[in-house]
Amino acid sequence: MKIAVIPGDGIGKEVMEAALHVLKGLDLDPEFLYAEAGDECLERTGTALPDETIEIIGEADSTLFGAAGESAADVIVKLRREFDLFANLRPVKSLPGVPCLYPDLDFVIVRENTEDLYVGDEEFTADGAVARRVITRSASRRISRFAFEYAKREGWSRVTAVHKANVLKKTDGVFREEFYRVASDYPEMEAEDYYVDATAMYLITQPQEFQVLVTTNLFGDILSDEAAGLIGGLGLAPSANIGEKNAIFEPVHGSAPQIAGKNIANPTAMILTTTLMLKHLNKTQEAQKIQKALEKTLEEGLVTPDLGGSLGTMEMAAEIAKRIEG
Ligand code: NAI
Ligand code: MG
Fold this sequence. Notes:
Layout: E1 2-8, H1 11-23, E2 31-34, H2 39-45, H3 51-59, E3 62-67, H4 72-82, E4 87-93, E5 106-112, E6 122-125, E7 128-131, H5 137-154, E8 158-163, H6 171-183, E9 190-195, H7 196-205, E10 212-215, H8 217-230, E11 238-242, E12 247-251, H9 268-280, H10 284-299, H11 313-322
Parallel strand pairs: 1-2, 1-3, 3-12, 5-10, 8-9, 8-10
Antiparallel strand pairs: 4-5, 4-11, 6-7, 11-12
Magnesium ion (MG) is lined by residues 221, 225.
């Protein structure tokens, strides 16, 4: 198993070191292919994403990405495009011992990652600017199928499409239509759809109702950060960018320059990110081992300052690694 490792900038490097320490506690012995990207790389080499890094990702079975700084948008957007990573997966799962709004959540947001307003086709007009919103049938089908397959594999019974087809009749009309077309291939699965504004409210008032949400790029971006807020915030939120051939796993947070270099970043998001990767590589048992060890560590309060503890990033990782059961 070859895993490309891109630590990146700031706390990206610290949480990556912590996560690799935990990963090395398993009997997997993967080959790590180190690569660089981000601000420091830009400064040293003149590019934030060298060709060599792209080659290494292409060679690997999977990629772990820490965080980049100011160049993050360029790096990750370019990688999503280069490898056609069409699905952005954001699990929302409450963790024990973590102060949060809801201690009992377990759902996932599947966000379309390649089109919508994020195609970046904007132009100035005489009185402001306009942006093009691109929603294709093929991308809508592909993301819907991904959501149903994921739901089936993970044992969910319901998939909810989120859109605004009452106002965006054509674009979101296409998305909703293709969602239900795909849904008809999964008669054992419940399919429903909600408006995005109502969903934003239900995420606050009754988030326990959700299982798998699937939505377009912009709505998914916003709703998934809202959802991360329900379970304790950025230091705890993992994500995956998945394509047909490649996949890149990264925590939701950035390089956090204010706390970088102090060994106080919470490694939880990056460690959960590695469990997502392991599941994607069909190493479900290994993913569960890490999840359990992490939960024990959190329950015992052996955590970083953001969660009220006094451990450093690496010390917390060491406690998690110690609790991995053979
Ligand atoms: P950020 O996620 O780096 O930090 C936001 C807040 O959360 C800060 O107060 C930070 O201290 C805290 N935080 C984040 N991760 C944490 C962790 N693991 N443990 C404890 N506290 C944590 O986002 P911000 O401040 O908006 O951006 C900082 C830099 O990161 C910018 O240069 C931005 O471009 C980049 N960025 C990169 C991303 C990526 O590589 N995918 C994503 C988001 C931002
Ligand atoms: Mg975002």
